[in-house]
Write a structure and sequence with these properties.
four-stranded antiparallel beta sheet, single chain, 11% strand, globular
């Protein structure tokens, strides 16, 4: 294996889940992770060009001065997120792969190609959308504070929303990330419209991408979008998650689980260790593994064979998801 040699400058960093399974099941998962990255960047005056949060991995393009700074950044943000994540779901063990992929981008062309590649990740997994339609590449926030929701009217906003907006501003001012307690009782009382407004507010309040650099490279937001949808960008220096899947199936699976009484934003479902519940086309062995490395708290729910079989059957019928996608959703790979 070629020894890694650090050179100051922009790096593309891709971090995969420890077991290929999904990490980010809920808006809370995503926004907590986003705010943790944001706070670290703001504290250290690191100005990334791109970030994209996918179901089971993340991308970041950011400048680092030293290898120690980059290592400290990844360790600190990862540890903070995993500690809160495992506590919330009653889990233990790794969430991300211990070794993250990293590649130095030397020269403006490679920097641009990587920015485009990261921005296009969502488009590659969701059929028939444009790059800017994927919320969690955060491209639309370059020009709008609420690209995916209505503007907040503070005169008519609910008391619950006002409380949470104030808490976001307080945490942002003090350079504190969000945590799972933030998405508790007050959040549960919000309407779907207000949750969308709050999400946009959080992203805008913590926004940390280098707008000036991005717009200087492309000239305008419209040029950014045109370039992003014209080409895919590239990454030849390490292996990304190129699995064929449809993210719409995962969104549907989350909804089906919740409708059937299994809210995966609150409980991590643990599949029974039996053979034959899924076909073996996605695995060398049909032996079903437990979800995630270990469980240690009441926030996880162990399913019986019958419960799991019924859930998988409903997902197959209602979503058209492949066995590989189902296995990925339940951490069975």
């Amino acid at each position: 294996m070629k020894k890694f040699e650090f050179h100051p400058g922009y790096y593309h960093i891709c971090q995969l889940s420890a077991d290929k399974g999904i990490i980010f099941y809920s808006t809370a998962d995503i926004l907590i992770y986003y705010s943790i990255i944001a706070v670290k960047c703001l504290q250290e005056a690191i100005k990334p060009l791109g970030i994209c949060i996918m179901f089971n991995h993340t991308h970041l393009e950011a400048p680092f001065r030293t290898e120690r700074q980059m290592s400290s950044f990844m360790n600190s943000t990862g540890t903070t997120f995993v500690r809160g994540y495992n506590s919330h779901y009653g889990l233990s063990g790794p969430v991300f792969c211990h070794n993250y992929n990293r590649s130095h981008k030397n020269g403006e062309k490679k920097i641009r190609d990587t920015f485009i590649y990261i921005g296009n990740n969502g488009k590659e997994k969701i059929p028939s959308i444009n790059a800017e339609d994927y919320k969690y590449n955060f491209i639309n926030y370059l020009i709008s504070s609420h690209p995916f929701s209505e503007e907040i009217d503070y005169r008519t906003a609910s008391p619950h929303l006002l409380v949470l907006l104030a808490e976001v501003l307080k945490r942002r001012k003090n350079l504190k990330p969000l945590n799972y307690a933030f998405f508790g009782e007050e959040y549960e009382k919000l309407s779907l419209t207000e949750r969308s407004q709050l999400s946009d507010f959080i992203i805008s309040a913590y926004y940390f991408l280098d707008k000036e650099k991005i717009l200087s490279i492309y000239g305008s937001y419209d040029n950014v979008i045109t370039a992003m949808n014209a080409v895919s960008g590239s990454e030849h220096d390490f292996k990304d998650d190129f699995s064929k899947e449809n993210y719409n199936h995962y969104y549907s699976m989350i909804s089906i689980c919740k409708r059937l009484g299994y809210d995966v934003s609150k409980h991590r479902l643990i599949a029974p260790q039996v053979e034959g519940l899924l076909c073996s086309t996605w695995s060398k062995s049909p032996q079903v593994k437990p979800c995630l490395p270990a469980t240690c708290g009441s926030a996880s729910s162990v399913l019986s064979n019958l419960q799991f079989a019924k859930l998988v059957s409903a997902i197959r019928v209602q979503t058209g998801a492949t066995d590989y996608e189902i296995a990925k959703f339940f951490h069975l790979l």
